[in-house]
User: What shape does this take?
Amino acid sequence: MVSFGAIKYVKMEILKSSAALIAWRNQYQSSAIGFVPTMGALHLGHLSLMIKSKIDNDKTLASIFVNPTQFNDPKDFLHYPSTIESDISMLEDAGIDAVFIPAVEDMYPEVAVENFHIPILTESLEAKMRPGHFDGVITIIRKLFDLAQANRVYLGEKDFQQLSIISAWVKKEKRAEVIVPCPTHRESSGLAMSSRNQRLQEKQLKEATLLFQILNTVKENKFNNTPVEWELWARSLFAQSPSFRLDYFEIIDADTFGPLAAWEDSENPIAVVAAFLGEVRLIDNMRL
Ligand code: PAF
Assistant: This one.
Protein backbone atom coordinates (compact mmCIF):
# COMPACT_ATOMS: atom_id res chain seq x y z
CA MET A 1 0.00 0.00 0.00
CA VAL A 2 1.29 3.48 -0.94
CA SER A 3 0.18 6.37 1.27
CA PHE A 4 -0.04 9.98 0.03
CA GLY A 5 -0.85 11.90 3.21
CA ALA A 6 -4.40 10.91 4.14
CA ILE A 7 -5.06 9.16 0.79
CA LYS A 8 -4.23 5.48 0.75
CA TYR A 9 -3.67 4.04 -2.70
CA VAL A 10 -3.81 0.26 -3.02
CA LYS A 11 -2.17 -1.04 -6.18
CA MET A 12 -4.28 -3.36 -8.31
CA GLU A 13 -3.07 -6.96 -8.23
CA ILE A 14 -2.58 -8.64 -11.60
CA LEU A 15 -3.25 -12.35 -11.10
CA LYS A 16 -1.93 -14.43 -13.97
CA SER A 17 -2.73 -17.94 -12.73
CA SER A 18 -5.48 -19.84 -10.91
CA ALA A 19 -3.03 -20.36 -8.03
CA ALA A 20 -2.49 -16.59 -7.73
CA LEU A 21 -6.25 -15.98 -7.74
CA ILE A 22 -6.86 -18.64 -5.06
CA ALA A 23 -4.11 -17.08 -2.89
CA TRP A 24 -5.61 -13.58 -3.37
CA ARG A 25 -9.12 -14.81 -2.55
CA ASN A 26 -7.88 -16.59 0.60
CA GLN A 27 -6.72 -13.26 2.04
CA TYR A 28 -10.30 -11.94 2.02
CA GLN A 29 -12.31 -14.83 3.48
CA SER A 30 -14.72 -12.58 5.34
CA SER A 31 -14.99 -9.79 2.72
CA ALA A 32 -17.84 -9.28 0.27
CA ILE A 33 -16.36 -9.90 -3.17
CA GLY A 34 -17.84 -8.52 -6.40
CA PHE A 35 -16.77 -10.17 -9.64
CA VAL A 36 -16.95 -8.76 -13.18
CA PRO A 37 -16.00 -11.38 -15.81
CA THR A 38 -15.02 -9.88 -19.19
CA MET A 39 -13.26 -10.74 -22.41
CA GLY A 40 -11.35 -7.43 -22.34
CA ALA A 41 -11.41 -4.60 -24.93
CA LEU A 42 -13.08 -2.71 -22.11
CA HIS A 43 -15.41 0.25 -22.64
CA LEU A 44 -17.57 2.49 -20.49
CA GLY A 45 -20.26 -0.18 -20.27
CA HIS A 46 -17.77 -2.51 -18.53
CA LEU A 47 -16.65 0.37 -16.33
CA SER A 48 -20.21 0.92 -15.09
CA LEU A 49 -20.31 -2.74 -13.94
CA MET A 50 -16.99 -2.27 -12.12
CA ILE A 51 -18.23 0.87 -10.38
CA LYS A 52 -21.47 -0.82 -9.32
CA SER A 53 -19.44 -3.69 -7.90
CA LYS A 54 -17.18 -1.29 -6.00
CA ILE A 55 -20.20 0.38 -4.41
CA ASP A 56 -21.80 -2.94 -3.38
CA ASN A 57 -18.74 -4.90 -2.16
CA ASP A 58 -15.56 -4.72 -0.07
CA LYS A 59 -13.37 -5.92 -2.94
CA THR A 60 -13.85 -6.03 -6.69
CA LEU A 61 -12.25 -8.64 -8.90
CA ALA A 62 -12.34 -8.41 -12.71
CA SER A 63 -11.27 -11.06 -15.19
CA ILE A 64 -10.04 -10.71 -18.75
CA PHE A 65 -10.11 -13.93 -20.73
CA VAL A 66 -11.10 -14.39 -24.36
CA ASN A 67 -12.72 -17.78 -23.96
CA PRO A 68 -12.03 -19.89 -27.08
CA THR A 69 -14.79 -22.43 -26.44
CA GLN A 70 -17.61 -19.88 -26.79
CA PHE A 71 -16.65 -18.83 -30.32
CA ASN A 72 -18.54 -20.86 -32.89
CA ASP A 73 -16.84 -18.83 -35.64
CA PRO A 74 -13.00 -19.13 -35.69
CA LYS A 75 -12.75 -15.81 -37.61
CA ASP A 76 -14.65 -14.00 -34.83
CA PHE A 77 -12.19 -15.45 -32.28
CA LEU A 78 -9.19 -14.43 -34.39
CA HIS A 79 -10.42 -10.85 -34.81
CA TYR A 80 -11.78 -10.35 -31.29
CA PRO A 81 -10.29 -6.98 -30.19
CA SER A 82 -7.53 -7.05 -27.59
CA THR A 83 -6.44 -3.89 -25.76
CA ILE A 84 -4.84 -5.40 -22.67
CA GLU A 85 -2.57 -2.44 -21.74
CA SER A 86 -5.38 0.12 -21.80
CA ASP A 87 -7.75 -2.38 -20.09
CA ILE A 88 -5.30 -2.67 -17.17
CA SER A 89 -4.96 1.14 -16.95
CA MET A 90 -8.73 1.55 -17.00
CA LEU A 91 -9.17 -0.99 -14.18
CA GLU A 92 -6.36 0.60 -12.16
CA ASP A 93 -7.88 4.07 -12.58
CA ALA A 94 -11.26 2.71 -11.51
CA GLY A 95 -9.69 1.41 -8.28
CA ILE A 96 -10.32 -2.28 -8.99
CA ASP A 97 -8.60 -4.51 -6.41
CA ALA A 98 -7.48 -7.35 -8.66
CA VAL A 99 -7.69 -8.56 -12.24
CA PHE A 100 -7.41 -12.21 -13.25
CA ILE A 101 -5.75 -12.70 -16.65
CA PRO A 102 -5.17 -16.44 -17.03
CA ALA A 103 -3.53 -18.35 -19.87
CA VAL A 104 -5.65 -20.67 -22.02
CA GLU A 105 -3.76 -23.75 -20.71
CA ASP A 106 -4.61 -22.76 -17.14
CA MET A 107 -8.35 -22.55 -17.88
CA TYR A 108 -8.37 -25.53 -20.22
CA PRO A 109 -5.97 -28.26 -19.05
CA GLU A 110 -8.58 -30.47 -20.74
CA VAL A 111 -10.77 -29.29 -23.61
CA ALA A 112 -14.02 -30.76 -22.27
CA VAL A 113 -16.99 -28.43 -22.73
CA GLU A 114 -20.04 -28.97 -20.61
CA ASN A 115 -23.58 -29.14 -21.85
CA PHE A 116 -26.29 -27.04 -20.25
CA HIS A 117 -29.82 -27.36 -21.54
CA ILE A 118 -33.03 -25.51 -20.69
CA PRO A 119 -35.81 -25.74 -23.31
CA ILE A 120 -36.25 -22.58 -25.44
CA LEU A 121 -33.64 -20.61 -23.44
CA THR A 122 -30.73 -22.65 -24.78
CA GLU A 123 -32.38 -23.47 -28.12
CA SER A 124 -33.51 -20.14 -29.53
CA LEU A 125 -31.96 -16.88 -30.83
CA GLU A 126 -28.20 -16.79 -30.03
CA ALA A 127 -28.16 -20.51 -29.23
CA LYS A 128 -29.67 -21.32 -32.62
CA MET A 129 -27.44 -18.93 -34.58
CA ARG A 130 -24.26 -19.78 -32.66
CA PRO A 131 -24.31 -23.54 -31.95
CA GLY A 132 -22.26 -24.48 -28.88
CA HIS A 133 -21.82 -20.85 -27.81
CA PHE A 134 -23.63 -21.09 -24.49
CA ASP A 135 -22.02 -24.44 -23.63
CA GLY A 136 -18.69 -22.61 -23.94
CA VAL A 137 -19.98 -19.71 -21.83
CA ILE A 138 -21.23 -22.00 -19.05
CA THR A 139 -17.98 -24.00 -19.15
CA ILE A 140 -15.83 -20.92 -18.52
CA ILE A 141 -18.31 -19.35 -16.12
CA ARG A 142 -18.18 -22.44 -13.88
CA LYS A 143 -14.37 -22.34 -13.85
CA LEU A 144 -14.26 -18.59 -13.13
CA PHE A 145 -17.01 -18.70 -10.50
CA ASP A 146 -15.38 -21.66 -8.69
CA LEU A 147 -12.10 -19.74 -8.49
CA ALA A 148 -13.53 -16.30 -7.66
CA GLN A 149 -15.98 -17.50 -4.99
CA ALA A 150 -17.71 -14.12 -5.33
CA ASN A 151 -20.74 -12.93 -3.44
CA ARG A 152 -22.06 -10.91 -6.38
CA VAL A 153 -21.40 -11.17 -10.12
CA TYR A 154 -22.11 -8.26 -12.47
CA LEU A 155 -23.35 -9.00 -15.99
CA GLY A 156 -24.58 -6.68 -18.74
CA GLU A 157 -28.16 -6.73 -20.01
CA LYS A 158 -26.88 -6.21 -23.55
CA ASP A 159 -26.14 -9.95 -23.62
CA PHE A 160 -29.67 -10.59 -22.46
CA GLN A 161 -29.83 -14.31 -23.28
CA GLN A 162 -26.41 -14.90 -21.69
CA LEU A 163 -27.62 -13.13 -18.54
CA SER A 164 -30.80 -15.25 -18.47
CA ILE A 165 -28.89 -18.50 -19.05
CA ILE A 166 -26.23 -17.80 -16.40
CA SER A 167 -28.97 -16.79 -13.92
CA ALA A 168 -30.88 -20.02 -14.69
CA TRP A 169 -27.69 -22.05 -14.27
CA VAL A 170 -26.87 -20.43 -10.89
CA LYS A 171 -30.42 -21.21 -9.74
CA LYS A 172 -30.37 -24.79 -11.06
CA GLU A 173 -27.03 -25.53 -9.40
CA LYS A 174 -28.10 -23.74 -6.18
CA ARG A 175 -24.95 -21.64 -6.27
CA ALA A 176 -24.31 -18.86 -3.78
CA GLU A 177 -23.50 -16.07 -6.25
CA VAL A 178 -26.06 -13.30 -6.64
CA ILE A 179 -26.27 -12.22 -10.28
CA VAL A 180 -26.59 -8.45 -10.64
CA PRO A 181 -27.97 -7.38 -14.06
CA CYS A 182 -26.55 -4.05 -15.27
CA PRO A 183 -28.18 -1.78 -17.89
CA THR A 184 -26.81 -1.43 -21.41
CA HIS A 185 -24.66 1.65 -21.96
CA ARG A 186 -25.14 3.49 -25.23
CA GLU A 187 -23.16 5.95 -27.31
CA SER A 188 -24.87 9.34 -27.81
CA SER A 189 -26.03 7.91 -31.17
CA GLY A 190 -27.91 5.17 -29.33
CA LEU A 191 -25.49 2.41 -30.43
CA ALA A 192 -25.09 -0.13 -27.62
CA MET A 193 -21.50 -0.17 -26.34
CA SER A 194 -19.69 -3.36 -27.28
CA SER A 195 -16.09 -4.50 -27.61
CA ARG A 196 -16.85 -5.54 -31.18
CA ASN A 197 -17.71 -1.90 -32.09
CA GLN A 198 -13.95 -1.32 -32.20
CA ARG A 199 -13.94 -3.27 -35.45
CA LEU A 200 -16.43 -0.91 -37.14
CA GLN A 201 -15.28 1.77 -39.63
CA GLU A 202 -16.55 5.33 -39.21
CA LYS A 203 -19.32 4.88 -41.81
CA GLN A 204 -20.39 1.61 -40.18
CA LEU A 205 -20.59 3.25 -36.74
CA LYS A 206 -23.31 5.49 -38.18
CA GLU A 207 -25.07 2.61 -39.97
CA ALA A 208 -24.98 0.50 -36.79
CA THR A 209 -27.42 2.87 -35.09
CA LEU A 210 -30.19 1.23 -37.17
CA LEU A 211 -30.55 -1.41 -34.43
CA PHE A 212 -31.24 1.20 -31.76
CA GLN A 213 -33.50 3.26 -34.05
CA ILE A 214 -35.69 0.24 -34.80
CA LEU A 215 -35.85 -0.91 -31.18
CA ASN A 216 -36.66 2.59 -29.99
CA THR A 217 -39.36 3.11 -32.62
CA VAL A 218 -41.05 -0.12 -31.54
CA LYS A 219 -40.84 0.88 -27.87
CA GLU A 220 -42.27 4.36 -28.42
CA ASN A 221 -45.08 3.25 -30.72
CA LYS A 222 -45.65 -0.22 -29.28
CA PHE A 223 -49.45 -0.31 -29.34
CA ASN A 224 -49.75 0.94 -32.95
CA ASN A 225 -49.05 -2.62 -34.15
CA THR A 226 -49.06 -6.20 -32.88
CA PRO A 227 -45.69 -7.77 -31.97
CA VAL A 228 -45.81 -9.86 -35.16
CA GLU A 229 -46.47 -6.77 -37.31
CA TRP A 230 -43.51 -5.00 -35.69
CA GLU A 231 -41.30 -8.03 -36.35
CA LEU A 232 -42.27 -7.98 -40.04
CA TRP A 233 -41.66 -4.21 -40.22
CA ALA A 234 -38.22 -4.48 -38.59
CA ARG A 235 -37.17 -7.41 -40.78
CA SER A 236 -38.24 -5.49 -43.91
CA LEU A 237 -36.06 -2.51 -42.88
CA PHE A 238 -33.03 -4.78 -42.52
CA ALA A 239 -33.85 -6.40 -45.87
CA GLN A 240 -33.78 -2.91 -47.48
CA SER A 241 -30.37 -2.12 -45.93
CA PRO A 242 -27.73 -3.89 -48.06
CA SER A 243 -24.96 -3.42 -45.46
CA PHE A 244 -26.78 -5.69 -43.02
CA ARG A 245 -27.42 -9.40 -42.84
CA LEU A 246 -30.09 -10.04 -40.22
CA ASP A 247 -29.82 -13.11 -37.98
CA TYR A 248 -33.05 -12.42 -36.08
CA PHE A 249 -35.42 -9.73 -34.91
CA GLU A 250 -37.97 -11.09 -32.45
CA ILE A 251 -40.34 -9.84 -29.80
CA ILE A 252 -40.51 -12.37 -27.00
CA ASP A 253 -41.45 -12.75 -23.35
CA ALA A 254 -38.32 -11.90 -21.34
CA ASP A 255 -38.97 -14.68 -18.79
CA THR A 256 -39.97 -17.63 -21.00
CA PHE A 257 -38.34 -16.54 -24.29
CA GLY A 258 -41.62 -17.62 -25.95
CA PRO A 259 -42.97 -15.68 -28.98
CA LEU A 260 -45.78 -13.12 -28.55
CA ALA A 261 -48.89 -13.09 -30.71
CA ALA A 262 -50.39 -10.14 -28.78
CA TRP A 263 -49.14 -7.61 -26.24
CA GLU A 264 -51.51 -9.07 -23.63
CA ASP A 265 -49.55 -12.35 -23.81
CA SER A 266 -46.68 -10.92 -21.76
CA GLU A 267 -46.10 -8.59 -18.83
CA ASN A 268 -42.45 -8.51 -19.70
CA PRO A 269 -41.98 -8.12 -23.47
CA ILE A 270 -38.55 -7.53 -24.96
CA ALA A 271 -37.35 -7.01 -28.54
CA VAL A 272 -34.09 -8.77 -29.39
CA VAL A 273 -31.98 -8.34 -32.51
CA ALA A 274 -28.77 -9.72 -33.99
CA ALA A 275 -27.35 -8.66 -37.35
CA PHE A 276 -24.06 -8.70 -39.22
CA LEU A 277 -22.78 -5.33 -40.39
CA GLY A 278 -20.02 -6.36 -42.76
CA GLU A 279 -18.08 -8.97 -40.79
CA VAL A 280 -19.07 -7.65 -37.37
CA ARG A 281 -21.99 -9.23 -35.57
CA LEU A 282 -24.03 -6.78 -33.49
CA ILE A 283 -26.65 -7.64 -30.88
CA ASP A 284 -29.01 -5.41 -28.94
CA ASN A 285 -32.33 -5.56 -27.11
CA MET A 286 -34.92 -3.30 -25.52
CA ARG A 287 -37.65 -3.90 -22.97
CA LEU A 288 -40.96 -2.76 -24.42
O1 PAF B 1 -19.90 -11.50 -21.89
C1 PAF B 1 -18.69 -11.85 -21.91
O2 PAF B 1 -17.78 -11.04 -21.97
C2 PAF B 1 -18.36 -13.33 -21.85
O3 PAF B 1 -19.33 -14.08 -22.49
C3 PAF B 1 -18.10 -13.85 -20.41
C4 PAF B 1 -19.34 -13.72 -19.55
C5 PAF B 1 -16.95 -13.08 -19.79
C6 PAF B 1 -17.72 -15.34 -20.47
O4 PAF B 1 -16.59 -15.54 -21.25
The pocket of pantoate is lined by residues 37-39, 67, 70, 137, 140-141, 159, 162 (CB under 6 Å). The chain has a mean pLDDT of 96.
